[in-house]
Write a structure and sequence with these properties.
355 residues; mainly beta; 5 domains; 21 strands
Length: 355
């Protein structure tokens, strides 16, 4: 290949369309700042050194200078070229590198909650098996035959007793099993009844459990605990026996009043004929014998004999032989007996008294 060098036009014209520089060295490009670009001709190639330490090759194409992309990292499969603010580099990118659109939003909890808050089941198409609840569908899925009838237009279930298993006896107006007045047993594992008021109209109620639990202790309450009973002594009245919450004592009331399940009334008596006095916690009767009395010793009541000193109006301490009790104006106390006084002594005594 021949090369023609035109020193006046500053150009190299090869004899073929390819200029081959055969050397092991390198081709040094012209370099300079942006004001030193020359010429601004299509295909011009140079190094821009406008910013110290940040050099890059540039080419003049389509009437403008354009930076030639330099990739600073070794690329791998699936990498993209991304500018880090200083240079172009080969790197993997994530959704954080793609700005969010105006309609196709990225998922976040806040975005999802905001979107779902504007939706309801009307925005969700119904499936083929999991169907939405409607009153019509619910009623249509229920049916009744025999003694049970069902009106799917109103949703009312009725017991019509077409088989005659249960009937009302004219005498008491209550329903009985088939046969009139026979008993009816329910066999259940557990039975819980909830209600504001549960009434059992039965003459006799038998409960097999030996412990009858009433009330509850899950929350703080100030109500009495016990049994309210009704009686009539010519007037309809109620009574109560159980724990008085205020005194925490077992109490029995007659002609009672019930104010929000706190009871008051006349305290009833107890028949203790079958109870031993030794059952009382403050009584000790060990060693008691016939004719003993109960006497309080400062701690308990104990069985003991009594003497004159135990009488409230007698002071009989340290009496002498033949003394008698004389009233001293305050109490009965030991004094001289008049036994053995002669008639003369009596006359002299009377004279001495002014008789």
């Amino acid at each position: 290949m021949s090369v023609n060098i035109d020193h006046q036009k500053n150009s190299i014209t090869p004899s073929t369309t390819t200029l081959d520089i055969d050397t092991t060295g390198s081709l040094v490009l012209p370099r300079g700042t942006t004001v030193q670009r020359y010429p601004s001709a299509e295909g011009a190639f140079r190094v821009n050194i406008q910013n110290t330490g940040v050099y890059y090759p540039e080419i003049y194409l389509n009437s403008g200078w354009n930076e030639v992309v330099q990739v600073s990292e070794t690329p791998s499969l699936g990498y993209f070229i991304k500018h880090d603010g200083t240079k172009w580099e080969a790197t993997a990118i994530t959704s954080d590198d793609v700005p969010e659109g105006t309609t196709n939003k990225y998922f976040t909890t806040t975005t999802a909650n905001t979107w779902f808050a504007t939706k309801d089941t009307d925005d969700l198409s119904e499936g083929t098996t999991n169907l939405y609840f409607t009153t019509v569908r619910a009623r249509a899925s229920v049916s009744g035959t025999g003694d049970i009838s069902y009106d799917n237009s109103t949703g009312v279930i009725s017991f019509n007793n077409t088989s005659g298993y249960v009937k009302k006896t004219d005498g008491d107006s209550w329903y009985h099993p088939y046969g009139g007045t026979s008993g009816l047993d329910f066999a259940v594992r557990d039975l819980t009844v909830h209600g504001t008021s549960t009434v059992i109209n039965s003459t006799i109620v038998t409960i097999a459990d030996p412990v009858f639990a009433i009330g509850q202790n899950t929350v703080t309450q100030s109500k009495d605990r016990g049994i309210e009973f009704k009686y009539n002594d010519g007037t309809a009245k109620i009574g109560f026996f159980g724990q008085d919450f205020g005194t925490e004592e077992f109490t029995y009331y007659l002609d009672a009043t019930n104010t929000n399940e706190v009871y008051g009334g006349t305290v009833g008596g107890f028949d203790l004929s079958g109870t031993s006095i030794s059952r009382l916690s403050d009584v000790a009767t060990t060693g008691a014998v016939a004719n003993d009395f109960l006497k309080f010793n400062g701690t308990t009541w104990v069985g003991t004999v009594i003497d004159l000193n135990d009488l409230n109006d007698v002071s009989a301490a340290s009496p002498s032989t033949n003394q008698v009790l004389k009233w001293n104006g305050t109490a009965w106390a030991p004094g001289t007996d008049i036994e053995g006084v002669t008639e003369g002594d009596a006359i002299a005594f009377a004279i001495a008294l002014g008789g």
